Input
Amino acid sequence: VDDTKNMVAGDTTDDWQLAKVVLESLIASRGYNATHMIKAHCDTLIASTFGWGKGSVKSIQMIIDGKRSGLVPPAKEKGVGLGNGVIMKIAPLALYHALRMEKKGLNPHLLLNSKRYTDDVRALGAITHSDQRAWISAYAVGIFIVAACRGELNDPVQRHWWQCRVSEAVGLLEAFFVDNPAERVLEEKLSDVHMYLASPEKLVDRFGSRFTALETMPFVIGTFMRHPNDFRAGVLEAVNAGGDTDTNASIVGALIGANVGASNIPDEWKNFRPEYREAVTLGDQLMKIV
Output
């Protein structure tokens, strides 16, 4: 495709660009500030839309043009509004809420029932995505990232426990926010993940690996479950499955990286580009604001 045909090994895509926007806004505002987050997205669109989905571009351009505020989702439009733009940038927001809970002496298990986390993910989704399932999918991925960071996804029993709990939470969110019952499919998809872990082909055949949150959420969680302790194998498998390769690889990398820690990410990958060091610096700054 035109966006990627001239890329070379190691080039970053919109996944890092937009995750960085969320991370920097959280740091600057010392938490989620809707006005600052919306402006940060607008400024980023003006700088570059490399790899962006057409729905996200249109939604933010309408904010820039004064046609919408970004505080409520854009109007539904066939064929847009369910892409991966919320999932790809959820990690900083989920980690911020987990750190905040830990500082208060609360167990981050409570993230499953946190209205503030839910509200912030929903607000983040409203900037660009019309379909509620885009942010609900991101909500689920964020909780898995937090559980991995806390060492709670190290064995199959733990992973299945979290899969069941997050599936239930996703089902409740779908029941409340997704108007059409026929579109409430995320709970079922996430509940099924453990049955398709025998091979990457089975995951792709069941869920797909392309450009919607309906495919990406169960695919990346399944790929993580296949390789919870092998960063290289999981990321490469996500890429080789085809589809939305950069987003799938970035989320699988976030999940496995959270589970194994930075020391278990291959050194040649960490040292290949300066963005890794930038991410570490920003991560340190995020911890200091909580």
Notes: The two ends are 41 Å apart (CA to CA). The chain has a mean pLDDT of 91.
